[in-house]
Specification:
Elements (H helix, E strand, L loop, with lengths): L6 H10 L4 H14 L6 E4 L1 H17 L9 E5 L26 H8 L3 E6 L33 H8 L5 E3 L8 H7 L4
Parallel strand pairs: 2-3, 2-4
Antiparallel strand pairs: 1-3
Length: 187
């Protein structure tokens, strides 16, 4: 699959028929499976993402798709998505299911982005190396012997390893900027 430089490039490719939202999701699901060793994803919403992609493909050709149609997004495990688990990478919250969606998630869904899964982070977003997660450390896709940075190391690594197009993180004092720098992505 081609590496897209922008969302408008994805839209052009969907219009021309060279790609579909469903084929994009399948591409990322394959990449996620191939790179499980990086320990980036805590949970992948494969079936849900594929169903959503199919619906968005239909909306795209009907002219009713939102501005983010075709964008495949990962969310940090401290961002709530109604009906989905959210643990902030902590054993304490293992099994907890969110009762609501964060505003950022609602807005992404309203504009037809496709959320593919939740990514690893430092426990309770408190760390700078992404080594304190209940689920284990996230490996740096550029050099697996190095840390990915934190606390949004899973988000940064997901983008750097081409496991999604965009990933949401959270930042209090460098939790997006530092891991982005560590893995060579933009944050």
């Amino acid at each position: 699959m081609k590496n897209f430089a922008s969302l408008s490039e994805i839209h052009e490719s969907i219009r021309s028929g060279s790609v579909s939202c469903r084929s994009l999701v399948n591409y990322y699901l394959d990449r996620i499976d191939e790179h499980k060793d990086l320990n980036v994803y805590i949970e992948v919403f494969a079936e849900e993402a594929l169903v959503r992609a199919k619906n968005i493909d239909e909306k795209f050709f009907a002219g009713t798709a939102g501005r983010l149609a075709g964008m495949v997004v990962a969310i940090k495990d401290n961002i709530c998505f109604k009906g989905h688990k959210v643990t902030a990478a902590s054993k304490i919250l293992d099994g907890f299911e969110s009762l609501y969606s964060a505003t950022v998630v609602k807005r992404l869904l309203e504009e037809d982005a496709i959320i593919i899964g939740r990514v690893n982070c430092d426990e309770f977003a408190m760390g700078s190396a992404n080594e304190t997660s209940y689920y284990g450390a996230v490996k740096n896709p550029k050099n697996p012997k190095k840390v990915s940075g934190g606390s949004s190391g899973g988000s940064a690594a997901a983008v750097a390893a081409d496991l999604c197009q965009v990933a949401l993180g959270s930042d209090t004092g460098g939790s997006i900027r530092q891991p982005a720098h560590f893995v060579g992505s933009l944050g």
